[in-house]
Write a structure and sequence with these properties.
Blueprint: E1 3-8, H1 14-23, E2 29-33, H2 45-59, E3 64-69, H3 72-85, E4 90-91, H4 97-104, E5 110-115, H5 117-121, H6 123-132, E6 138-142, H7 146-151, H8 157-168, E7 176-181, H9 190-196, E8 202-205, H10 207-220, E9 234-238, H11 243-258
C-alpha cells in the first residue's frame, strides 16, 4: 500500500496528520520534518524555497501516492513549483480566512490571523485576503516565537499565557469573532488560547478543509483506500536523520492526540 506523505519544517504538520488519521483511517502515512532548517518562518524566502524543493526530492525517493505540504509558509512559497515537478496529487495549506470572514461579516466582528512573518509577507496571503475581505475586517499578527516554543515541546501554561497576553495587548479582543491559526504549529496551543480570549471568539485552522481536499483528490485519481487497515501507522523521517527527533515527533503526536495539553 502506497503512503500519503506529509511535509513540514518540524512538528507543526502533525496537527494536519492527526486530522488525516481521523478522516482517512484506512490509509498509511509518511511524515517528513525538515529538521536541518526548522523554523522556516524567519528565514529568507529563496533559502526556504531551496530547502522545500530539496526535502520534496528526498520524500519522492519513497513510493508515495500523494503529498500534503502541511506548512502554510512552504505552501505559499513553493506549492506551484512542486505541482509542476511532480505528477502525484499535491495539497497545500491556506489560512482559513474565507470561512472566518463569512462567519464574522454578518456579526460585525473582526478576524485576527495568527501566522509566521514569512506567511504574512507573501503575495499569496495578501491575494487571499484581498479576494475575500470586502469589508476590511481582517488583521494579521505574526507570532515568530511560537514555532520554537512548539519545537521545544514547551507547554508550560504560565510561560505561554504570558507570551500570548503580551502579543494580544495592542488588540481589543472584544472586537474580534475569530482567531485563524495560520501556521500548523499553532493548533498545539488551541486549548490555551481558548482559555485566554473572550468566550465568544471561535478558533479555526485549515486542517479539516485540507484533508477534505486530499480525500477528494485521492478519490478522483482512484487512489483512495476506504477498506482495510492503516495499522502499519506512520513512517517517520527527518532531513537530519535524527533518531531523537523522530521520538520527539511521536511524542508530539501522542500529546496532540490526547487533547489534554492545557487541561486544568
Amino acid at each position: 500500500m502506497k503512503r500519503i506523505a506529509f511535509f513540514d519544517s518540524g512538528l507543526g504538520g502533525i496537527t494536519v496528520l492527526k486530522e488525516a488519521m481521523t478522516q482517512l483511517p484506512h490509509e498509511q502515512f509518511l511524515y517528513y520534518a525538515d529538521t536541518k532548517h526548522v523554523p522556516y518562518g524567519s528565514k529568507p524566502k529563496e533559502d526556504v524555497k531551496r530547502f522545500i524543493l530539496d526535502a520534496a526530492a528526498d520524500i519522492m525517493r519513497h513510493d508515495i501516492k500523494a503529498l500534503v505540504v502541511a506548512c502554510n509558509t512552504a505552501t505559499s512559497i513553493a506549492i506551484a513549483e512542486l505541482r509542476v515537478r511532480y505528477a502525484i496529487p499535491i495539497v497545500g495549506m491556506e489560512p482559513a480566512v474565507k470561512p472566518a470572514v463569512e462567519m464574522n461579516r454578518p456579526l460585525g466582528r473582526r478576524v485576527l490571523v495568527l501566522a509566521t512573518a514569512l506567511t504574512l509577507r507573501e503575495s499569496k496571503y495578501h491575494e487571499l485576503v484581498n479576494r475575500v475581505d470586502d469589508l476590511s475586517i481582517v488583521d494579521s499578527l505574526p507570532l515568530p516565537e511560537l514555532v520554537p516554543y512548539c519545537e521545544a515541546l514547551q507547554f508550560d501554561e504560565a510561560v505561554l499565557a504570558d507570551y500570548f497576553r503580551r502579543q494580544f495587548e495592542p488588540y481589543d479582543l472584544n472586537e474580534y469573532g475569530t482567531l485563524v491559526l495560520g501556521c500548523t504549529h499553532y493548533p498545539f496551543y488551541r486549548q490555551l488560547l481558548a482559555k485566554l480570549v473572550p468566550p465568544h471568539i471561535s478558533i479555526i485552522d485549515g486542517s479539516r478543509g485540507t484533508v477534505r481536499r486530499l480525500r477528494e483528490l485521492l478519490s478522483a485519481h482512484s487512489l483512495l483506500n476506504d477498506t482495510g487497515s492503516g495499522d502499519a501507522g506512520v513512517q517517520w523521517m527527518c532531513s537530519g536523520r535524527d533518531g531523537e527527533y523522530i521520538r520527539k515527533m511521536q511524542q508530539a503526536l501522542e500529546l496532540y492526540a490526547s487533547g489534554r495539553l492545557f487541561e486544568e
